[in-house]
Known about the structure:
- This protein is of the alpha/beta class.
- The protein is 43% helix and 16% strand.
- The protein has 19 helices and 17 strands.
- The protein has helices at residues 8-12, 17-25, 63-69, 110-123, 128-135, 151-166, 180-192, 209-217, 234-237, 253-265, 291-296, 302-308, 325-336, 344-352, 358-372, 380-398, 422-436, 441-448, 452-461, and strands spanning 4-5, 28-33, 38-41, 73-80, 83-93, 98-106, 170-173, 199-203, 218-219, 231-232, 242-246, 267-268, 277-278, 282-287, 311-314, 341-342, 377-378.
- Strands 1, 2, 3, 4, 5 and 6 form a six-stranded mixed β-sheet that branches. A five-stranded parallel β-sheet has the order 8-11-14-7-15.
- Strand 12 and strand 13 (277-278) form a beta hairpin.
- Residues 118-138 and 400-418 have low confidence and may be disordered.
Amino acid sequence: MNTLYLSETELRTRGGALDRMLDSLFDNGILLDRDCRILYITASDQKELIGQHVSVIDQVSPFEAVLRSGRPQLDLLLELHGRQCLSSLFPVSDGEGIIGVVGTITVRSLARLKRVATRISDQDEGFQGLYRGLSRIDSGYNLEDFRGESPAVKDLLEKARKAANSGESVLILGETGTGKEIIAGGIHAERHRGRPAPYVTINCTAIPEQLMEAELFGHEKGAFTGATETRLGKFQLAGDGDILLDEIGDMDLNMQSKLLRVLESREFERVGGRESIPLRAGIIASTNQNLLAMSERRAFRADLYYRLSAIELYLPPLRARPEDIPMLIDHLCAQKGGRLHLTSQAMLYLQRYAWPGNVRQLKNLVGRWLVFYDGVLITGERVVTELTVGQRSYNEAFGVSDPLAGPAPETPAGTAGPPRTLAEQERAAVEGALAWARGNRSMAARALGISRTALYQKLERFRLL
């Protein structure tokens, strides 16, 4: 709930935490009472306006609507002295009613503001709504956050920078856990070079099909049951910034048709409306699915695929850049303030593992090891045990016989490490699981401890389809 809770006395007391927050967090801030009269303003050259109605300086922002409804107005796009900026209005409540409004304007780096706002909101729950408002309009990532020194990563980052500067729509392809969100956020940051610009993400899996159109394009008051007021859609909230269509492969075919029309015409209408609204935002889409193969099966519109894929970026899986694993482990340990000690054999095993969950799986593994083995030498045997514990636990909990179980292959005396590569073992595991499940792919995926999508990806990679 984006509401500040203050008493009438706190609202009218100057020099306190509220004034300091407005002065330090925002480029411009204003505090109004229940009659829309100015109680405080951050602009030093406008102090004489205190006590006057807000309309003397702002006749556009919906302060009175916020006072009446008690609902915030977030991410309002304004132009101030030729610069794009974002304004948000937050109601102030004393617990019994709305007693004022805080108005903010942001034109500086939102990443810095979020760090400051985090500290303030941790100290006072009344200010947590401000942090959430800021979180909606900033990606929080730069391309430098995608870690790696391998040729594949260097090539990816170079292409991502060029894609950001092209202004074309970008389609980001990669398996689960490879860092698609980081690259998308980095493209947004690179494209706007520190200029404040909205970054709106749309999870195409999480939004129900019947609500998707209103979520994207907005709706007019009375457009459907429950539409008690006009609401801006995410395409309009994005303004001149960027929209990330996350997991675009899961979007309903009917909605794909509507999205295609919007991308081709660069304009849209709210649900129940007739006014054409221009689409100014850049489009970034991401998926862990093979959209080209889906289009051939008519599970995804081919014309939409080609519209989205003006530029395609493929994120290499972790198994394709094993030389990055030592650096990634050091980086993840540094983030958590710990350190891991691994034998050379342990690192070799990690670099030969297939990593079905990619960097996300590595991050979880490092986090677990820092809890249990911080400062303890981790051997190759420990790595093998840790990388198989999840599947063993599943099999034991659900009474599933292990399709991968069997006598360990003999290794020549005096040698260390498995005789086959982990990629070969992974293919054998997939084949064994399918044979055990008698071709039932859902059952095979469960036995392997992976999703159906991940299984299909492995079937394509090993040409087992």
